[in-house]
Amino acid sequence: MVKLLAVFLLAGACLAQSAEPAKFYKLEFVIKEAEAAKVLSAHSFTMIAATDANNTLRTGARLPVATAAPAQYTYLDVGVSIDCRNVKESAAGLSMYISADVSSVPAESNGTPPVVHQNRWTTGVIVPLQKSTVLFASDDMTTKHQMRLELTATPVR
Fold first, then answer.
1. Alpha helices, DSSP H only, in the chain?
2. Are 10 and 2 a contacting pair, CB within 8 Å?
């Protein structure tokens, strides 16, 4: 019984030593809205991401939308949500699985129900360290605008 316990303790110690400690990276996201080569707006979001965690960034607002009943509202979440998982450094750069959701409502609604503009992207990526990289780009279906998500990843030492 004592030998069996010693084997389990030794095996546990070996596993604990082989586990790599978490590494941390500063992830700087920039969401740009552009028309042709001209940037119309740019918004920056920064997080510290760990290799051993699910990393999330959330910012936005809850927009009240009147329902059929008087003085009752349904709320829509608008803003930015970015999830980064499976963050790992390799010779090629920093790899991760990214899911991003960017939604907004135009300022003027003229009494009509709001139109929510939404861009949603999900993919695995490899980005070089310390270099801005376009992760996603999509054209607006009603204008000549393009929405881009860029990322710069920097190791935290």
1. 2-18
2. no
Q: Domain limits at 92? A: 21-156
Per-residue pLDDT of 118-148, as tens digits, reads 899 999 999 999 999 999 999 988 788 899 9
What are the pLDDT digits (tens) for 100-115?
999 988 776 676 777 8
In the block, which residue shows the tokens 């960034």?
Answer: 57
3-state secondary structure at position 90: strand
Q: Report how many domains make up the chain.
A: 1
Distance CA 108, CA 27 (A): 33
DSSP summary character for residue 96: E
Q: Using alpha carbons, list the distances in angstroms from residue 132 to 14, 19, 55, 64, 150.
A: 39, 31, 19, 36, 6
Task: Give, as one character, the DSSP assignment of residue 141.
Answer: S
Residue (of 12, 24, 78, 72) closest to 49 by Cα position: 24
The DSSP 8-state label assigned to residue 116 in this structure reads: P
Least Cα distance to 55 among 3, 20, 96 occurs for: 96
Answer yes or no: is 150 within a domain.
yes
